[in-house]
Amino acid sequence: MSRPGRAFHYDRVQRGFHWLMAALIVVALALGIYAAWQVPGTSPRREILDIHKSIGLTVLLLLPLRFVYRLVAGEPAYRAPPSRHAHIAATLAHLTLYALMLLLPVSGYVYSAAGGYGLPWFGVFSFPRLVPVDKALSQAGYGAHYWIAWGLGIVLGLHVLAVAWHAWIRRDEVMGRMWPARGDASV
Q: What is the value of pTM for the model shown?
């Protein structure tokens, strides 16, 4: 049973992080796929990859802020708690998403930095190169980046399917937890 004034939705900051990072990740993935079909070393591939890298590095910078805020703010209560197995599955899925959100930009950084490529941030500045220029390391970074991107795409697809399942099949509150609540003081 719910208590008056108890929040059953994520707060504005958590929702902001979620939707901002979701948009950034989807755009970065789309740009990466599009760039892969362009001729290497040509325009618009270079410009697309500069934006792709800028977005990826933005995600990398936002991730620890999001993670720490999540630890501090916690998770809102459920009106009807999920089963133990569903809760474990959701926790594992979220930890997997966090790991992939970390590993994907790190592997992209290693690929670019070790390959001697630029590390721009929207043309404002360039990130420092923290790894030596090394062809083998760059190729390893590329391979990791490629497969982690596929992994993230698959996990995101499963995440969206799980949300749809909760919204349209189970008709429970899971999807609504990431939307503002009407009349809820936590929004």
A: 0.88
